[in-house]
Amino acid sequence: MNEHAQINPAPVFEWLIVGGGVHGCFMANMLLRNRIADKKQIRIIDPNSDPLANWKRNAANIGMKYLRSPLVHHLEIEAFSLKHFAQNVESSKPLFISPNDRPALSLFNDHSDSLLSRTGFSDIYIQGLVSDIQKTEHGYSVSTDSGIIRSRNVILAMGQSNRAEWPSWAAEAKSERVRISHVFDPDYSPESIPEKGTVVVIGGGMSGVQTALSLKNGERNIILLTAYPLRQANFDSDPGWMGPKYLNGYQRVGCYVKRRRIISKARNKGTITHELQAALNAAVKRKQITIVHDTVVSCTKMLEDLVLLNLKNADSLGANCIVLATGFGESLPGGRLTHELASRYGLEKAPCGFPITDEFLQWDDGLFVTGALAELEIGPVSRNISGARLAAERIYQYCKMDVKSDSKTTVNSFTKTEKKSA
Question: Could you give the CA distance from residue 362 to residue 385 in angstroms, rounded to a whole number?
Answer without folding.
Answer: 20
